[in-house]
Structures are given as structure tokens and as C-alpha cells.
Design a protein that fits this description.
471 residues, disordered N terminus, 24 strands, TIM Barrel, 8 helices, globular, 6-stranded antiparallel sheet, alpha/beta, 7-stranded parallel sheet, Immunoglobulin-like, single chain
């Protein structure tokens, strides 16, 4: 697998001058088994700085439905990396509005402005997104990897004449509408660069086949694979190549049911393949098609182009309980997905909304969902959900540049029902993440020929991260 650029959370959760050292979760229960960790302006749980264990020893971090949250222990089988939080650093930024905006808008609503002379960032960018990104960057030990996704062009470029609804881009690749839309990307990158914010990548379009899942008023531009290929070849690829930006292009940004077909159509064109760095995947329809038939098949066809999960969330398409405070099963769903896709050549995994309100918004099309952090602004507190800690079992311990390594699993007793991934970090440490979704404890053993053998247990409904160095 290529470099694993996944996760490194800081989420602006540590904006007050707390003392160094671990602090335990302040639990609050929403039912017998549904627990969140409560945070406010003066207190929030956090971890000790990550310390790699001495050769011959290991460190284990464990979260469980029973109430543990990244609880640390160590055993037999120092270098301090002073970084609090769970170090999530892969962040997606909408270009203008998305469904999770408070209103529909674009950056240039003046009809026929093909030169984009009226292009302006919105108040949401200047007063909220950019200042938050600056604060996050200042707090993060790891660089933030930002990628941007457009939901819609200005209405006057679309067939339906509105940023809302499922229109297509007017005209065809290479014409004035497509050239203007490509230059809109460059203008966006230019304006953010003026504020010292740069983007690692852009996706060509969020969910170009969005009619499968989204409300009719949802902001989108519909693309087929062939039309996206032609737009990349004739418009977006050349525009980015001429620009001063070293921003990469990600295609698809939609469900994996479209793979490997979408990749064959776009990357089968040699010119498009030179412009494109990788493929973005959403998780909502993963159960329909196996990872082997979609992700692995695509990797085998195009091993030089990365696969990246660019959006995931729980609570979608539910008529009740979009937000389910303390729900352990939703955290399980995150870890199950991450483990599955990392084992099928995916290089990273991105949560959709890092923080939402108690309703699962704001969202102007009322497409409410759940989130790892839920904010109760009326009480000036926020809840760190099980999803947050499940993310942390990966983000905290698997930095960019890590590589998945081979792992042989014997099938004695129930070991085969444990889900896992093994990763080699750039600093030479090994990481093993083990997920037990069963309702009972599962004993198992870890053997590293370079270090030795340990016997351990995966408790019922738990996730563990093991970290050790070889001799």
C-alpha cells in the first residue's frame, strides 16, 4: 500500500492552557451503554504525549463499550513525541456551499462573468474556515493535508440555472463554461493562498452521481465518467498545470460501486492519467459491493494512483436519531470501515463533519447526520463520541508515510472474527489495531519474530492499538 496519509485530529479541542499530562474522560450516559466524554472551556480529557516503548516492550491503547477511552497500559514483549490530541490532519474543505452550509451560495453569482472578475470568497471562508484552519495549523505538530471539493458551480453555469438542484455544467468540455469552471478552481486556490492556506489536492466534483442518495434541492453538478475525463483533459488539468499551485487532482469522490468502471474510463486515457493523482471514495453504499471487487480491482489496474476515502459519516438517511449520543456501534462502524479499506489498498480515510450541533447540522437541506464531536452551544460544552475515539486508534498512531505490512492470522478459536491491520511507521515502530465487535472476550496472541510472543485479550466490544519497536 502507498503512504497512509490518514488522520491526525486536533479539531481545535485544546484552545485553553491546560496543564500537561493525561486527564480522564468526564463521562455522561445517554442510556445504559451510550456514553460520551463531556468537555467545556476549562476541562477536556486528553492523552499523555506518545512515548515509543523500549525494545522488547509494547504499549496498548484500548477503548470499549464498557467505558474505556484510549486507556493506556504496557507490558513486555524513551522517546517522547510531545503531541496531545488524536492528531487527525486530513481535512476536507468545501468550495463555496455544501449541504452543511447555512445557505446556498457560490463565489461568483454575476451572470456571464467568464473572466471571473466578480469572484469573491464568502464570509464563511474569511471569518470562519480560514481562521479555524490557521488555529488548527498552529496547534498541529504534523502539517495539515487539505483538500477541497466543489458541490456546485454558480447557477448561471448550470443547466438548471441554480446552485440548488441536479444540473449539469452547460456546454461541453473545452468550451467557455468548462474553461470558466476550471479557472474557478484556480481562483479559489489563489484567494486561499493570499491567506496563507494551501491545498494538497482538489476533487473534481463531490458525488457527481448524487441523485442516488441526496434530496432534490441538494447542490451538485452531475458528471458521467466520460464527461469528467474530458473536463480533466481539456480544462482542469491544463489550468492547474499552468497555475503556480502544486495541487493534485482526485477523481470520482463518490461511492465505490462506481469502481473500477470510473477509473477505467478516466485513467484509461493517458492524458487524464498524467493529470490525476488518485481516486476519492465515499462509504455510504459500501455494503453493496465487496472491497475486493471495487477497491482491490482498481488498485490492480492502476497501482500508481492512490485510493482515498474522502467522506464518511453515520446517521445518514435516518428519519429518527440522526445524532445518537454515546452510540458505540457507530464507532464500530467507523473502525470496521477503516480496517477493511486499509487492507484493500486505501491510503487514508476522512470523516465528513468533524463537529456538528445536537440536531446533526447546521444543514440547509435538512440532511442531518451524526459526528464524532457534538456541540451543545447552549451549555458551552461539547461531547466526544465513541466515533472520536475509534478514529484516534488510527490517527494517533499511524502517521503519513506509514505502510501496511503483512500479517498472518491463524484461525484458532475465534481469532478469525477479530478485525485487524498491521502498519510500519516511518520511525520503524510497528502498530497493530485490533477490533472486536463481538459481545464476548477473545483471547489471542501476537508474535513478532524480531521481538517475541505475548498473550493478550480483546475484550468484548472493544478496539485496541498495540505499538512496539523491534530490536
Amino acid at each position: 500500500m502507498g503512504a497512509v496519509g490518514i488522520l491526525s485530529w486536533l479539531l481545535l479541542l485544546q484552545t485553553v492552557p491546560w496543564a500537561a499530562g493525561a486527564r480522564p474522560c468526564s463521562p455522561k450516559y445517554f442510556g445504559r451503554d451510550s456514553m460520551v466524554c463531556v468537555c467545556n472551556a476549562t476541562y477536556c480529557d486528553t492523552l499523555d504525549p506518545l512515548v515509543l516503548p523500549a525494545p522488547g516492550t509494547y504499549v496498548k491503547y484500548e477503548s470499549s463499550k464498557a467505558g474505556k477511552r484510549l486507556e493506556r497500559s504496557q507490558g513486555s514483549f524513551q522517546r517522547s513525541l510531545h503531541t496531545p490530541g488524536i492528531e487527525y490532519n486530513l481535512i476536507r474543505i468545501p468550495m463555496a456551499c455544501s449541504d452543511f452550509s447555512v445557505r446556498p451560495y457560490s463565489y461568483d453569482d454575476v451572470p456571464h462573468d467568464y473572466e471571473l472578475t466578480h469572484f469573491r470568497l464568502a464570509e464563511e471562508d474569511v471569518k470562519m474556515k480560514i481562521p479555524l484552519l490557521h488555529r488548527a495549523s498552529a496547534m498541529s505538530r504534523r502539517p495539515l493535508s487539505l483538500f477541497a471539493s466543489p458541490w456546485t458551480s454558480p447557477g448561471w453555469m448550470k443547466s438548471n440555472g441554480d446552485v440548488r438542484g441536479k444540473g449539469t455544467l452547460k456546454g461541453q468540455a473545452g468550451d467557455k463554461y468548462h474553461k470558466t469552471w476550471a479557472n474557478y478552481f484556480i481562483k479559489f486556490l489563489d484567494e486561499y493562498a493570499k491567506h496563507n492556506v494551501t491545498f494538497w489536492a482538489v476533487t473534481v466534483q463531490n458525488e457527481p452521481l448524487a441523485a442516488l442518495l441526496t434530496p432534490p434541492q441538494f447542490p451538485t453538478i452531475a458528471f458521467t465518467a466520460a464527461k469528467q475525463r474530458d473536463f480533466v483533459v481539456q480544462d482542469l488539468g491544463p489550468a492547474l498545470a499552468r497555475s503556480p499551485h502544486r495541487t493534485r487532482i482526485i477523481i470520482l469522490d463518490d461511492q465505490r460501486i462506481h469502481l473500477p468502471h470510473w477509473a477505467k474510463v478516466v485513467l484509461g486515457n493517458a492524458t487524464a492519467a498524467r493529470y490525476v493523482a488518485g481516486m476519492g471514495v465515499h462509504w455510504y453504499l459500501d455494503s453493496i459491493v465487496p472491497a475486493r471487487c471495487s477497491l482491490e480491482a482498481t488498485h490492480k489496474l492502476f497501482p500508481g494512483h492512490f485510493l482515498l476515502y474522502t467522506e464518511a459519516c453515520s446517521g445518514f438517511l435516518t428519519f429518527r436519531f440522526s445524532v445518537s449520543l454515546g452510540c458505540w456501534e457507530r464507532g464500530n462502524h467507523y473502525s470496521h470501515s477503516i480496517l477493511q479499506v486499509l487492507n484493500h489498498f486505501v491510503a487514508g480515510w476522512t470523516d465528513w463533519n468533524l463537529a456538528l450541533d445536537l440536531e446533526g447540522g447546521p444543514n440547509w437541506v435538512k440532511n442531518y447526520v451524526d459526528s464524532p464531536v457534538i456541540v451543545d452551544s447552549s451549555k458551552d460544552i461539547f461531547y466526544k463520541q465513541p466515533m472520536f475515539y475509534h478514529l484516534g486508534h488510527f490517527s494517533k498512531f499511524i502517521p503519513e508515510g506509514s505502510r501496511r505490512v503483512g500479517l498472518h492470522s491463524s484461525c484458532r478459536r475465534l481469532i478469525c472474527q477479530l478485525e485487524h491491520v498491521a502498519v510500519l511507521r516511518p520511525d520503524g515502530a510497528l502498530v497493530l489495531v485490533v477490533l472486536n465487535r463481538l459481545g464476548w472476550d477473545v483471547p489471542f496472541a501476537i508474535q513478532d519474530p524480531a521481538v517475541g510472543f505475548i498473550e493478550t485479550v480483546a475484550p468484548a466490544s472493544s478496539i485496541q492499538t498495540y505499538l512496539w519497536r523491534q530490536q
